[in-house]
Design goal:
elongated; mainly alpha; about 120 residues; about 0% strand
Length: about 120
């Protein structure tokens, strides 16, 4: 195994941890928002994981396609959907504190989704 393989593995592991922590963090934020706006209790916990799995699938899928030589024309729609899903994640994470007038908490809650968008 070369140095490049080790670096790739390290970066992949760190990104996996960041994504996992971001998903856990976002779960609480989106669940609180969903319950606040009256989403049924049996549906509320499903929203964040569905969106987060969409983001994860698109991250992995676009990376796989790019590594295997997919053209920009093939990648563009998936990247647009990834950006849209990431923005939706950001919006859902900050909506509850913004509605309550807590701009500082909204800024804090934006960190995880912004890491994914970046």
């Amino acid at each position: 195994m070369g140095s490049s393989d080790g670096v790739t593995r390290f970066v992949t592991t760190v990104m996996g941890i960041v994504i996992g922590l971001t998903f856990l963090f976002g779960f609480g934020n989106v669940l609180a928002l969903a319950l606040r706006i009256g989403v049924p209790a049996y549906v509320a916990p499903l929203i964040a994981p569905a969106l987060d799995l969409t983001v994860l699938g698109l991250l992995v899928g676009t990376r796989h396609l790019a590594m295997h030589g997919a053209s920009e024309a093939v990648l563009r729609p998936a990247r647009r959907l990834l950006l849209t899903a990431s923005i939706a994640t950001l919006a859902l994470n900050v909506a509850d504190p913004l509605c309550a007038g807590h701009r500082g908490k909204a800024s804090f809650d934006a960190v995880g989704p912004l890491l994914l968008i970046g």
